[in-house]
Specification:
The complex is a heterodimer of chains A (about 375) and B (about 240). Chain A is of the alpha/beta class and about 375 residues long. Chain A has helices spanning about 65-70, 90, 100-105, 125-135, 140-150, 170-180, 200-215, 225-230, 250-255, 260-265, 295-300, 335-345, 355-360; strands at about 20-30, 35-50, 50-55, 80-85, 85, 110, 185-190, 220-225, 235-240, 245-250, 275-285, 305-315, 320-330, 345-350. Chain A is built from 13 helices and 14 strands. In chain A, the strands form three sheets. A six-stranded mixed beta sheet of chain A has the order 6-7-8-3-9-10, with helices on both faces. In chain A, strands 2-1-4-5 form a four-stranded antiparallel beta sheet. Classes of the chains: A alpha/beta (about 375), B mainly alpha (about 240). The complex binds adenosine-5'-triphosphate and magnesium ion. Magnesium ion (MG) binds next to helix 1 of chain A. Adenosine-5'-triphosphate binds near residues 37, 60, 61, 63 and 224 of chain A.
């Protein structure tokens, strides 16, 4: 999936075309006391090496079920999960307990949690050492590695503190340091910032982004906040009722007409087209954002253009803008200016156009 | 009876009580801790879910707990003789004391371990830890303040039971109270015994609470303070 030509490859240097997490036709059905809940309904997920991949969806959409199936904390009802080339579902064996191979595979997948899940009986340093103890590393190696990781997350001075003495953001930093102890290629994050205030959320996301860049770490994160996707994700998927209804790189999504994710990333208001006016949603990425296309349009065709709403933002390292504009006259009268905009590399959508056509057909 | 006559009696009685309670507490902890953890692990949704085993263990624990101690003592006489070679004396008393205290302590352990946040268990599983790792690194250390409170409760209960064991010639402070206080109307000796028991029990309770609280403060668990839990468990 190459990026759009003409757009600079913005800091995506760590992303390769290898899929590091793949799920195929993953389903998860919870059965409890005769009731069945289908939490995952045929999910195909492809996360490329070195990217930050966001899964967004409403409460109950199945996001946590999905991420917990990736390291088999939850056993999928059917389908397969492959992480770093290893089919984890094949390792799982039977029964509720994880066999040795699966446990080894898990130790190479980091996970951070919404409620941090730090052991209150251990110091920060000892919490970070815990996965290394499980891996059977020696005492000196453990403390060296733990100090290194605490330094990386900016908490070197808190090594001797207990989790109860830390703020939420600091606890999550410890959680991240702990998740990195086994030198994972993949980090799973289930709502890691949902218990944090906006400022702390930003700093944690920035940390995840830095780790992604510096270590080439692939991050699969789950969230219900569009801002999280907007600020750190290279790719995103939208989940509804246990299914992935949209997915792709951020630029692909923005270039997809009618994409719900794109609309959510860039909400625009304004009335739809009428008999005497045409409303267009224009999306521009990368360089075209800096070109004065709209004024060129006005000059070339000598028409008045009103801007109903606009936003320019950085999404996943890409500069993206979206604008809702109004041209005088019906859609049919504006075919040429629309062609001009498309020629300039802009993506143009006409909101409410389908329904307008239906009305015409009915006449 | 003069003080110099009482003194050796009391010293011996204290020593006997300490001996009985000490050993039976040790056995109760060694036996009850794994049993209590097993009750949690085998329960629905537990790491070693096994509902049949859970029911069986639970039933045995319940029956053993509901038996009055004096009956347990008599019922276990054959077993006690088989273990210690006798059914009287302080060594013989340890057997029913310990067996009565194991299920008592196991239930307290179960309650304490159940309060450990499941997220912590999950975190260790995600790191690649097995069930034994979860028990060693999470369940026991995270519930330690409650486990200490549970041990205190068990010791206090055992001091009470050990007084009953006194009636079968096990010695100890309960024995003194009955033989001298009740049968020979040595009221003074009897009150001294009561005072010693009160002091000993308070001291143990204080030490236990102090240990639990200092651990608790360090970790600052979010649950209720161990002292409240202790009252709940005892009621
Ligand atoms: N252990 C379980 N037993 C039974 N049903 C479950 C279990 N876990 C989740 N579910 C159900 O599966 C569905 C998906 O849950 P899931 O936790 O994956 O949603 P989510 O997208 O993470 O929601 P949220 O944003 O609220 O965390 C829900 O309907 C939920 O009730
Ligand atoms: Mg969730």
């Amino acid at each position: 999936m190459p990026l759009c030509p003409g757009t600079p490859t913005p800091a995506h240097s760590t992303v390769t075309e290898t899929h590091v997490i793949t799920t195929t036709d993953l389903t998860k059905v919870y059965r409890s006391r005769g009731r069945e809940v289908t939490a995952l309904d045929g999910v195909d997920l492809h996360v490329r090496e070195g990217e930050v991949y966001g899964v967004i969806g409403q409460s109950g959409a199945g996001k946590s079920s999905l991420i917990r199936c990736v390291n088999l904390l939850e056993r999928p009802t059917s389908g397969t999960v492959t992480v770093a080339g290893q089919d984890l579902t094949a390792l799982a064996g039977r029964g509720p307990r994880a066999g040795r191979e699966l446990r080894q595979a898990r130790s190479r997948i980091g996970m951070v949690f919404q409620h941090f899940n730090l052991l209150s009986s251990r110091t920060v340093q000892d919490n970070v050492e815990l996965p290394l103890e499980i891996l059977g590393k020696s005492g000196t190696e453990r403390s060296r590695k733990a100090r290194e990781l605490l330094d990386l997350v900016g908490l070197a001075d808190k090594a001797g503190a207990y989790p109860a003495q830390l703020s939420g953001g600091q606890k999550q930093r410890v959680g991240i340091a702990r998740a990195l102890a086994g030198d994972p290629k993949v980090l799973l994050s289930d709502e890691a910032t949902s218990a944090l205030d906006p400022e702390t959320t930003r700093s944690i996301l920035a940390l995840l982004r830095d780790l992604n860049r510096q270590l080439g770490l692939t991050v699969l994160l789950i969230t219900h906040e569009m801002d999280v996707v907007k600020s750190v994700c290279d790719s995103a998927a939208l989940m509804e009722n246990g299914r992935i209804v949209e997915s792709g790189t951020v630029s692909e999504l923005l270039a997809t007409p009618g994409s719900e994710l794109a609309a959510a990333l860039f909400p625009l208001d304004g009335e739809a087209s009428g008999d005497d006016r045409t409303v267009l949603d224009v999306t521009f990425q990368g360089e075209s954002a800096t070109q004065p296309v709209i004024s060129q349009l006005a000059r070339t065709y000598n028409i008045d253009i009103s801007i109903l709403g606009a936003a320019i933002d950085t999404v996943g390292g890409l500069q993206v803008g979206r604008m809702r504009i109004e041209l005088p006259g019906r859609y049919e009268d504006n075919v040429v200016p629309i062609g001009f905009l498309r020629e300039k590399g802009l993506q143009v959508e006409v909101p409410g156009r389908e329904s307008a056509l239906v009305k015409e057909g009915a006449k | 009876m003069t003080w110099s006559e009482m003194q050796p009696l009391l010293a011996q009685a204290c020593w006997d009580t300490l001996y009985m309670v000490g050993w039976s507490t040790l056995i109760a902890v060694v036996g009850g801790l794994p049993l209590g953890i097993l009750l949690v692990l085998t329960d629905r949704g537990g790491l070693l879910q096994n509902l049949a085993a859970n029911k069986v263990i639970g039933q045995i624990v319940n029956i053993a707990r509901s038996l009055p101690f004096i009956i347990l003592m008599v019922a276990l006489m054959t077993f006690t003789r088989w273990i210690t070679g006798t059914t009287i004396g302080r060594a013989a008393a340890i057997v029913p004391l310990a067996i009565g205290a194991i299920p008592f302590f196991a239930r307290l352990v179960e309650t304490a371990v159940r309060e450990v946040d499941h997220g912590l268990v999950e975190a260790v599983q995600a790191m690649g830890g097995n069930t034994w790792t979860v028990v060693r690194k999470v369940l026991v250390p995270e519930s330690l303040p409650s486990l200490i409170s549970s041990t205190t409760t068990t010791i206090v209960a055992l001091i009470g039971y050990s007084a009953m064991a006194g009636t079968v010639g096990a010695g100890g402070l309960g024995d003194i109270a009955i033989r001298y206080g009740y049968q020979r109307f040595e009221t003074q000796l009897m009150w001294i015994t009561v005072a010693i028991l009160a002091v000993v029990i308070s001291a143990i309770q204080f030490a236990g609470d102090y240990a639990a609280r200092s651990l608790h403060r360090r970790g600052a668990h979010s649950g209720p303070a161990p002292k409240l839990r202790l009252l709940k468990a005892a009621s």
